[in-house]
Amino acid sequence: MVGRDVEKMVAVGIVWGATNALMRRGAIIWDEALKSTPQPNMPHLKKWLKLLLIWQYTLPFLINLSASATFFAILSDAPISLAVPVTNATTFAATALFGMILGEETHVGRALFGGRRKLPL
Length: 121
What we know:
Helices cover about 75% and strands about 0% of the residues. The protein is globular, with a radius of gyration of 17 Å. By secondary structure, the chain is mainly α. The longest helix has about 35 residues, at about 1-35.
């Protein structure tokens, strides 16, 4: 039974990764729309409503939420110590991959293999 759960975890991670990249693109469209019509005193609620009206953000967001519901259903049968690392690792890699497919500048080695910069002392 765990094997089928792992398949579901990977599928959720792929959906989350794909929708993360797509939501980022929708958020950029929203940001450009806000900049093109400057209204310095626009209430935050109105800004969020404007975001929800951008289908390039809203559609991936709804798909992402449905994957979240699936993840919680998986947690009812699978151990959290397995579900979280598998799903998070898959999400991380899928976000990088779909970002590259969408033309985002990505540091492939760091994104896929967890590399990091050295911090100055």
